[in-house]
Structures are given as structure tokens and as C-alpha cells.
């Protein structure tokens, strides 16, 4: 495999690995041994592709945003993951993992969620397959994201409030890991991002890689060249970016730009700009870059966007950053909100605030006039209406 | 003060180890609790250094870590406190915590500090065997610090043999696949698992932990292993205002035949 993908030991350069207590070892080892084999089975691929097409609605369009392009002086294409069933890219991964869990003979599914998008995507596939579903969500997030909690419950999931620590995504992930420790045999943990112990970062990136696979074909049809000049995506843990970058990793002429959330500003003390503020560490089972104190205590991040409000990034992102293959930048709350409103006014598309961070970076780029730019529009903004209303006073 | 090698001594059995979190309930209670535990009859100690995200721990130890961090406990401060350890405590002491804290302190620095203050070893649940062997084993050996591995009912016999080869003082046998603070029920299944381990005749002694909370569970566990560890039940006692006065009777209630 390429130097930017995982090696046989589970590492991306110095990052990755499986830093897990012994209690999780058998489950993680089982996944490590079987995930590639299962994913390559013909019956798996057939069912996966069929569900992506008929249930999720793929391929998602690659849309040339003409008015946005005119404003910035480049050809700006939006990869419309917001049009997927459940409104974001998250479903690509949960479909893949539920098929994997079925083939591993698991009867019970657990997941963590921050804003609730991954929780909804997990509850959705559990309803689809008739499997028991338990979603861990920070107590504070449960209050902030009531509609998504209701969606999960309607689909039959049990939503458990994580009451430890800061009561947000990081703690929901801890609770899910504790559940998995206590249920070592019949349970599969569907992690929602490219984080966690090996093989999760690779597994999730592979399921999300459909995004760049389609983009290449679509771009070739539209422009005669499958390679754009720039590819942009937002990064919390980094699953949509991992999928958006995947098939461009070897095409070094394509500049990959990952946009983190700066919150109130990188130096404000309220930020989630991991590469700017973090250093090497271990969280949730992998070695990566994370925001922490000198004593190695994980720092609580902040972003207006719940999906980017995570103190680390996946190990592959840490490697893309460190090796220089990717450019990692950050965008503040204010810049993202303005970019979200701009897209809405120019193109009639309300983006998720996460995706607005990627859009906002266009303001900071300079173009010659005919570059091709692809931005992953990872989710739709319906879930964020409350935030947009409060921010702009609509 | 020289620590006694209770693990290599065949005569020693029914060893009681106590776990508690440094900096809980008070920032400077670490050494005083250790001293009291030795006087009361504990055979060795595990002192936890707190971490913000302790995934292997149940609510009681999570809470103690949170309080300890709020009190201002850090690994650096703990090593400062432990400079007084060997003038006051002679039983073996192990530090227990999560890898990220050690990584930030520096793995070599950590081993060096352990050696300097007279700590015998470390239990780092999320430092996997592969990474230990490849990256850190030489450093641990250089400073004579034992790395303690965990075994669960799901650990394969091959892996147990490998762990036995890499271990130097004891192996930490988890009573069940669980987070800390659940009650141990030595039913047929657990008994079979303990017996299976006993029959493997490992080079290193076994010490059973997780779910040991009182005399009954302690005795059941030490039927099969050289010792047993009490964590959450002791940490719960520390939440009592007069905890210093209660340590002795707690230890006696477990060790008296």
C-alpha cells in the first residue's frame, strides 16, 4: 500500500497503533484479522454497493457551484454528501460497519455520538438490520441536540447519557469503550470517525473512500481530468476528509487542505484546532496529535460546530500533516457562519456548520482563474438551523 | 530502605494489595495513606496517577481521578511527593495509570524517576504488549522497572505465555472482562478460569484484581493466586471524612483469618 496508508502493524508513520487495555484486545484483534477479508468478499461488496445506491442514494452529485465559482474566480465543485440519506457522509461508514458486524456474528451495536449525526446514522442501520442499538451521548449534547435524540429513539435505539468528565463527545467515546470492555463477546462498536485503535482508522477511511472514488470519475466526466488542483474538507476526527482525500493521496499534484475548527480563535483558549494547538499523544486507542496539558491530560476543545468539537485527529491525518502531504489550517466560528450564509444565498444550499468551515477557507485562497477545486459538503444544515438563527438573529 | 521481594518468595501467600489514586481525597495524602496501609498490614501498593480519560475504570475510580486532577495532582508532583516514600514505606509500590501521561512525561524519564524514588514497577493498561516490546522494554529494563501485564478470561494461552516471558514480578489477572468496581462472583466459570491459569504453571506469580472488595472475595481469589488487589472498595472508603482512622480496620477485616 501507499506510504500514506496504514502498514501491516497498524501505523501511519509514527501514528496509529492499538493502545488499548487487554480487555479490548480480543475484539480488536478479531477485527484486525478479519476486516479486509470480509470487505473483499463478493457478497459483502454486492450488498454494500446495493445499499449505497438504493438506500443512501449514491452516487452523490458533484455540483459545479457557478455563482460561488464566479465570486472566487475558480471552478468550485461541491461533493454533495449532504444529499445522502440522514443528511451527511456518516451513513457510508455505518452501512459498511453494520454489514461487517453481521458477518462477525454480533448481535448488539454500540456507538458514540457528539452532535448526533453518527448516532442517527448508526440507529438507522440498526433499524435496517433489526439489531439492538445503544448510543452513548454526552449529557450536555443530549440537551443541545434534542431532535437527533428523538430520531434515534424513533428508530429504536437506546440513548445513554455520558455523565463523566465534560459530558460531551470525548466522554461519550469513553463510555462506549467501557461498554465494549464489559460486553466482550456479542457487541460491535461502530466508531464514527477515523479514530480509535487499528483497524478503525483504516476501516472507516475505506468505507468513506467512496467519496473520492466517485469524485474522480465525476470530475473526469465534467472536466476531462480526474485530478483537481485543490481538495478541501473539514476535520474533527476527520472521517469525511479521510474519504475525500483517499484516492488523491498518491496524486501529489493535488493539494489536500484540511480545515479544523478554530472556535473563538486559535489562541483564545476556546478552540478545536488540533494541529495548531496539540502535540503527539495517545487518546481513544491510537497515537496521534491531540490537545493536552503538559501533564498529558486531554484538554476540552471548543467549536460552534459539534461535529468538529474533538480534541484529537485521526492518526492518518496526523501523518498527512507531519509528512507535509496535507495542509492543515483552521477557521473560526465567525468565518464559518459567514461562509454558511454565503453558500445559502448564492447557491440555495444550507450547509452543516462543519462543512461551512471548509467553505470558509476559500476566502483565504488566491486563484489564477481556472483552477478546479473540490469541496466536500459533508452534511446539510437542517440540524444547525437553531445555531444559524441565534447567530444571525433570523 | 530495601523492599522485600515478596513475589519470588515461595512462602508468601495471600498477599493483599491496595490501589488508591494519588491526590485523592487530598493533594498531599499520598504518602500518609501508604504509610498507614503498610502499618495496617497491606503487602504491596498500587498508587494511581490520574488521567482525564480513564477508559478501563468504573465510576468510583473515575471520580477519584477527577477529584485528584482538580486538586492539582500531576505525575511530576507525584514523583516529588514520592521522594519521601522509601524513608517511610518498605513494601513494594507500583504506579498505575494511562499511557498518555507517561508519554508526555517521557517514558525514559518516567522509568528514571520510578527508580530514583524506589517505585518497583508500573501498570499501564493501555500500553500494549507489541509497543512495549518493540519500543520500551529496553528502557524499563535499564532502570529495573517491572512492567505489569493484564490477563483477562478472553486472553489466549499463547498470549499468556508471551506475557509470562515479558513479565518480571507478577501478572495481573482480571477476574472478569470488565471495568473496575464490579463485584466478583466466583461462580463455576471464574473458578475454571482461575484454575486453568494456575495449571499453566507460569514463571510469574498471579495476582487477581477487579471485583475484589471484601474478605470473602479476597479469600476466594487467593485460593487460586498469590495475592489479590482491592481498588474501588478502598477508594470508596477514602471518601469518608475520617478515612485515616478507618484504614486499619478495613485492612484487618480482610486479612484476619
List the helices and strands of chain B in order: EHEHHHEHHEHEEHEHEHEHH
Helix percent band of chain B: 40-55%
Shape of chain A: globular
Quote the beta fraction of chain A: 15-25%
Q: What is the average of the pLDDT values of chain A? A: 96
Number of domain units of chain A: 2
Strand order of the largest sheet of chain B: 5-4-3-2-1-9-8-7-6
**Count of DSSP H/I helices of chain B:** 12
Structural class of chain B: alpha/beta
The multimeric state of the shown protein is heterodimer
Beta-strand proportion of chain B: 5-15%
Number of strands of chain A: 14
CATH overall fold name of the largest domain in chain A:
Rossmann fold
Rg on CA atoms of chain A, Å:
19 Å
Full CATH superfamily name of the domain at 15-147 and 212-255 in chain B: Aldolase class I
Please give the count of helices of chain A.
Answer: 16
- Structural class call of chain A reads alpha/beta
Q: How far apart are the first and last residues' alpha carbons of chain A, in Å? A: 50 Å
EC number (chain B): 4.2.1.20
Catalytic activity (chain B): (1S,2R)-1-C-(indol-3-yl)glycerol 3-phosphate + L-serine = D-glyceraldehyde 3-phosphate + L-tryptophan + H2O
Keywords (chain B): Amino-acid biosynthesis, Aromatic amino acid biosynthesis, Lyase, Tryptophan biosynthesis
Protein name (chain B): Tryptophan synthase alpha chain
